[in-house]
Amino acid sequence: MGRLTIRTVEMHTGGEPVRIVVDGYPTLEGDTILAKRRFARENHDGIRRMLMFEPRGHADMYGVIPVEPDHPEADLAVLFIHNEGYSTMCGHATIALGRWAVDTGVVEAREPETAVAIQVPAVLVRATVEVTGGVTGRTRFEGVPAFVAASGVEVNVPGHGATTVDVAYGGAFYAFAPASAFGLDVRRSPVRDLVDAAWAVTTAVGDAVPLEHPDDPDLGFLYGTILTDGADEWSENPTANICVFADRQVDRSPTGSGVTARIAIQYARGLIGLGIERAFESIVGSVFTGKALRETTVGEHPAVVVEVAGTARYTGRCEFFLEEGDELAAFLVR
Questions:
Q1: Does residue 163 carry a pLDDT above 80?
Q2: Does 2 have pLDDT greater than 70?
Q3: 161 and 69 in one domain?
Q4: Please, are residues 292 and 326 in contact by the beta-carbon 8 Å criterion?
Q5: Which helix (H) or strand (E) element contains residue 166?
Q6: Three-class SS string for 301-326?
Q7: How many domains does the chain have?
Q8: Range of 233's domain?
Q9: Which residue numbers are catalytic?
Q10: Are residues 151 and 299 in the same domain?
């Protein structure tokens, strides 16, 4: 019926979609996961666009491509895809993958918790899935070592002038600024206004702040900007943020890698201690929790290992076709 057929399992974590490819994607060449990521980008990017773009997806779709792991301790390995390309780390997808791996038998279920080791382009991520009566539930994971790359940097944001931002790594580099710096509120302002402000920050920081990860040059790029409610002092109440990443893509979840990076900032400032859990709220009201577990280093950077937790849900299964000669195989209307 179609020249190419791709089958997927559909999930969401905190409202953010996770489209997991389960059949039909070509085998990727490369000895390492980063080599496979480069091979996918250079040879099969049309499949990414097919799955993420309209008419099968939308500008804010997110997906996962399982690949052969090269880490000896990994239960599975994955690439992450979105509207612009290929992420190096994704917390919300990791939460979904943990549950999916247990439910599909990739990892044998054990009660009350099942450990799942997931190799992603940034690192080996260790997730733990709650299992009760054979039913999987909440998932937590230890993220990559997170660190502050630049603190209190002043950049010239187009349309807004001089603005102070932080840049931190939590599996990807993000710029952080309070939404109030742009006269906005992450819980009440129109999403389009928040996206415009965040994108302006991404543009400014990308031009002004050089980024380098000590472990691999493929990790040294600014992934997006997270606007916060400014509530970085510890509180029992959730602190809200919105993440705008890739090509103006809006995360519906609190953003697992973003929570990881934000805790690194709070810890570096002495606003949160080890083992102290905080709640982070997204623009749709979903909540992840996070806490700094222990100190470490990344190159010369003081860093912390952060645990993030959330819940993923199934939404369906899909079988997508790409017919020969389809002139509208992949497009976006914004």
A1: yes
A2: no
A3: no
A4: no
A5: strand 161-169
A6: EEEEEEEEEECEEEEEEEEEEECCCC
A7: 2
A8: 146-309
A9: 90
A10: yes
